[in-house]
Specification:
Distance between the termini: 14 Å
Strand content: 15-25%
Strand order of the largest sheet: 3-2-12-13-14-11
GO biological process, one term: spermidine catabolic process
Helix content: 25-40%
Protein name: PAOX oxidase
Order of helices and strands: EHHHEEHHHEHEEEEEHEHEEHEHEHH
Organism: Psophia crepitans
Family: Belongs to the flavin monoamine oxidase family.
GO molecular function, one term: polyamine oxidase activity
Low-confidence stretches: none
Structural class: alpha+beta
Number of helices: 13
Bound molecules: flavin-adenine dinucleotide
Number of strands: 14
Radius of gyration: 24 Å
C-alpha cells in the first residue's frame, strides 16, 4: 500500500496543468488519466465520486435529499465566485455571504417540512466543512469573498500517480547531476542587495549569500524562495537581511493559511460497498447558520468531512483517508494515534450503525 501524507491527486489534469503535462511526458500516470474525455470533463474542482452519506442518527441518508443540498451549495458557491473583478462585494467573506444566502431560503428548504429542512441544513453544514478543507481554512469567514473566483479549477477528472506523487520529483531529480539538490539543508539567513565574493576571488561579485544552519554558504545572482507562508510569518524579519520591503512584509502578514490533515484508517475487511468511493459524514443537528462549538476536546471529530476510499484496493488494501481542516485539525495533532483511533472507531460505529462491523482501523 501507499499512503500519501500530502498531495495525492492532480487536480484538473488537463493540458493546461503543468504537473499533468510533466507527469504525462514521463509516463507516470495510469491509462484512465490519458483518456481525452477524462481531461475534458468539467468537474469544477469537485469530482463526482460514487458516495454514501451517513447521518449521526446511524443511518444512510437519502441520496436525493443529500444531492438536493449539494446542488444548492454548489449554486451558492458558484455565485460566490462572480465577485472577482467586480465592484464592492455584498459581504466581506465567503462564510458571511453563504449564511446571508441560506438564511432566507430556510423556510422552503426540504419542501418546508421540519425534519427535511433540518436535514438540508445539516448537509449544507457538511458542505461548508468540505469547502474549509478545499480552501485550507478553519472557517469560510476567513476566506475573502471578492477574490474567491480568482481560483480557477482546470478541467479533468482528478487522477493519482500509481507509483506515488514522489515519482514526479524523483524523475525530475534523475535528470540533474548528482548533488544538485541538497536535502536537510535548512537556510538560516538570506543576505541580499550585497556584494559577496568567493574566497580568494575578488573578480566576481554576487548580490546574494545564502547561509545555512550547518554553517555552509552559497553565493548567487538570484534566489527563488519557496519556504512555507507560516515560516515566513514567524521568521521573515531576520530570515532576510536586509529585511523585505514593507509591501512584501505586509502581504506576508495579511495572507493566511490554515491546517489540513489526513487520517488513514486501514481495515481487514471493508464495511462499505465495492462501488462506493466516498463516505460522507453528516451531523444531523448542525446548521451552517449556527456558530460551531469551540469545545475542541469534546467536538473536534465533528469537523471531519468524511473518507475517500483509496483506489485501487488491490494496491492499497481497504484503506479510508479522512480529511479534517482548521483548529479541530490542529487539536487532533495534539492527540496520540491511539486516541484518534479510539475516536474514529466510535464515530464510525455511531454513524454507520454497524455495531458489529470489523472496524479495526490503524492510523
Ligand atoms: C493534507 C494535505 C493534502 C493535500 N493534498 C493535495 C492534493 O491531493 N493535490 C495537490 O495538488 N495538493 C495537495 N495539497 C497541497 C500541496 O501539498 C501543497 O500545495 C504543496 O506541497 C505546496 O508546495 P510548496 O513547495 O509551496 O510548499 P511545501 O511543500 O510546504 O515545501 C516547502 C519546503 O520548504 C522547506 N523549508 C522550510 N523552511 C526552510 C528553511 N529555513 N530552509 C530550507 N528549506 C525550508 C520545507 O521543509 C519544505 O520542504 C495537500 C496539502 C495537505 C497538507
Amino acid at each position: 500500500g501507499l499512503a500519501e501524507l500530502g498531495a495525492h491527486w492532480i487536480h484538473g489534469p488537463s493540458p493546461g496543468n503543468p504537473i499533468f503535462r510533466l507527469a504525462t511526458r514521463y509516463g507516470l500516470l495510469g491509462p484512465a488519466a490519458a483518456r481525452e474525455e477524462n481531461q475534458r470533463a468539467e468537474a469544477g474542482g469537485h469530482p463526482p465520486l460514487p458516495s454514501v452519506t451517513y447521518g449521526s442518527s446511524g443511518r444512510v441518508l437519502s441520496p436525493q435529499a443529500v444531492s438536493k443540498a449539494h446542488e444548492l451549495f454548489d449554486a451558492l458557491l458558484a455565485s460566490a465566485r462572480t465577485f472577482w473583478g467586480a465592484g464592492e462585494p455584498p459581504a466581506p467573506s465567503v462564510g458571511q455571504y453563504l449564511r446571508a444566502q441560506i438564511a432566507p431560503r430556510v423556510p422552503t428548504l426540504g419542501g418546508g417540512r421540519e425534519d427535511a429542512r433540518r436535514l438540508q441544513l445539516a448537509v449544507l453544514a457538511a458542505c461548508v466543512k468540505l469547502e474549509c478543507c478545499i480552501s485550507g481554512t478553519h472557517s469560510l469567514d476567513l476566506v475573502a469573498l471578492q477574490p474567491f473566483g480568482e481560483y480557477v479549477s482546470l478541467p479533468g477528472l482528478d487522477c493519482t500517480f500509481p507509483g506515488g506523487y514522489g515519482s514526479l520529483p524523483d524523475r525530475l531529480l534523475s535528470a540533474l547531476p548528482a548533488g544538485t539538490v541538497l536535502l536537510n539543508k535548512a537556510v538560516r539567513t538570506i543576505r541580499w542587495r550585497g556584494s559577496f565574493h568567493e574566497d580568494g576571488d575578488l573578480g566576481r561579485a554576487f548580490p546574494v549569500r545564502v547561509e545555512c544552519e550547518d554553517g555552509d554558504a552559497f553565493l548567487a545572482d538570484h534566489v527563488i524562495v519557496t519556504v512555507p507562508l507560516g515560516f515566513l510569518k514567524e521568521r521573515h524579519q531576520d530570515f532576510f537581511q536586509p529585511p523585505l520591503p514593507r509591501r512584501k512584509a505586509e502581504a506576508i502578514r495579511r495572507l493566511g493559511f490554515g491546517t489540513n490533515n489526513k487520517i488513514f484508517l486501514e481495515f481487514e475487511r471493508p464495511f462499505w460497498e465495492p462501488q462506493q468511493q466516498l463516505l460522507e459524514l453528516v451531523w444531523e443537528d448542525e446548521s451552517p447558520l449556527e456558530e460551531p462549538s469551540t469545545d475542541l476536546e469534546a467536538t473536534w471529530f465533528k469537523k471531519l468531512v468524511g473518507f475517500v476510499v483509496l483506489q485501487p484496493p488491490e494496491q492499497h488494501g481497504h484503506v479510508l483517508c479522512g480529511f479534517i481542516a482548521g483548529k479541530e485539525s490542529e487539536y487532533m495533532e495534539t492527540l496520540s494515534d491511539a486516541e484518534v483511533l479510539g475516536t474514529m472507531t466510535r464515530v464510525l460505529r455511531m454513524l454507520t450503525g454497524i455495531a458489529a462491523a470489523p472496524l479495526t482501523p490503524t492510523p
